[in-house]
């Protein structure tokens, strides 16, 4: 079976990563082709990507040009299945599927109503049950909840990495709370810094790893200065290839998001590394976080403060063991008949 994956996001989002994992696993059973925008993360990091034109533009003529070009590319590929991740590609695929005779799969990973035309999608793939509320009737012939998130082999605890990173950051003997994610309002890092300051755990440090998106590094550092925890905040504002080593240096992983998190990639990476986790209950997080491995908090300063205090006194060995066991449930997998009619 030939499957075309239209991955038309420019950056390395959790949604793109989720679809790339499906594509990688599908290669074992099928002939797969990836279509993406030039200069996108996918185009730069994957071999053999077929370039397409942008499908979303304020100028409708340019959007139409992208649609026509997509039709030509798909006609040449002649796929049995097309998988999309965004609304624009899904809508255009709906217009093309009858004439090009393919089945349409859509990965839906947004906390808003699905707006694809009725009776168009053959199979709708959701990363968690939470998103079912956003799917109106008659939008798909079949809805599949596919909880396949983390590469267990890659995201595995490294004792050498832990030692190296702790030496690099000068935190050898400190208790480390760590968070990973783009510096954006939705990640709740301001609430995390406030909660960390209020928790008053003097022997601890907070490490945040992420590149600037909607918040400037200096804003978070300024907040830490105001709250008198600047000397206990380490902010790594760069893309690191040794992220597993950095995660391994944490004692507790923290997901402080105030929204989104319908594909909670970092949460599952923390699980796979074997970290006890503090997490807010937004999006799919409340569905996947278990008491055995996680401490659940509301997305507020005081709730995060209480969770941090609770984590400092918790049985971390027990929580860590539970995380590793729980991670197995979300390891990468794809049934051989996943794309069958």
Automatic annotation (TrEMBL):
It comes from the Bacteria. Keywords: Transferase. Gene3D superfamilies: Glycogen Phosphorylase B. Residues 162-311 form the Glycosyl transferase family domain. Coiled coil: none annotated. GO terms for molecular function: glycosyltransferase activity. PANTHER family: GLYCOSYLTRANSFERASE (PTHR12526). This is Glycosyl transferase group 1. It comes from Hippea maritima (strain ATCC 700847 / DSM 10411 / MH2).
């Amino acid at each position: 079976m030939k499957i075309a994956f239209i991955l038309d996001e420019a950056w390395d989002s959790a949604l793109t990563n989720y679809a790339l994992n499906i594509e990688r696993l599908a290669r074992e059973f099928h002939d797969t082709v990836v279509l993406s925008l030039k200069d996108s993360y996918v185009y730069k990091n994957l071999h053999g990507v077929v370039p397409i034109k942008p499908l979303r533009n304020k100028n409708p003529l340019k959007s139409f040009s992208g649609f026509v070009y997509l039709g030509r590319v798909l006609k040449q590929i002649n796929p049995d299945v097309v998988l999309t991740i965004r609304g624009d590609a899904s809508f255009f695929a709906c217009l093309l599927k009858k004439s090009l005779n393919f089945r349409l799969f859509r990965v839906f990973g947004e906390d808003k109503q699905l707006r694809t035309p009725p009776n168009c999608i053959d199979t709708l793939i959701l990363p968690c049950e939470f998103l079912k509320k956003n799917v109106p009737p008659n939008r798909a012939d079949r809805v599949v909840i596919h909880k396949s998130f983390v590469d267990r082999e890659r995201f595995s605890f490294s004792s050498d990495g832990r030692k190296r990173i702790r030496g690099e950051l000068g935190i050898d003997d400190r208790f480390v709370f760590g968070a990973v994610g783009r510096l954006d309002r939705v990640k709740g890092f301001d609430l995390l810094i406030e909660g960390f300051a209020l928790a008053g755990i003097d022997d601890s440090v907070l490490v945040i790893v992420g590149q600037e998106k909607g918040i400037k590094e200096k804003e978070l550092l300024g907040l830490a200065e105001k709250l008198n925890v600047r000397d206990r905040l380490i902010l790594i504002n760069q893309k690191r290839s040794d992220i597993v080593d950095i995660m391994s240096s944490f004692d507790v992983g923290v997901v402080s998001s105030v929204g989104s998190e319908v594909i909670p990639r970092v949460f599952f990476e923390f699980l796979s590394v074997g970290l006890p986790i503090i997490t807010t209950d937004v999006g799919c997080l409340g569905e996947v976080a278990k008491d055995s491995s996680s401490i659940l908090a509301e997305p507020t300063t005081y709730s995060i403060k209480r969770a941090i205090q609770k984590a400092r006194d918790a049985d971390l060995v027990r929580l860590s063991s539970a995380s590793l066991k729980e991670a197995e449930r979300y390891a990468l997998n794809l049934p051989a008949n996943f794309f069958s009619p």
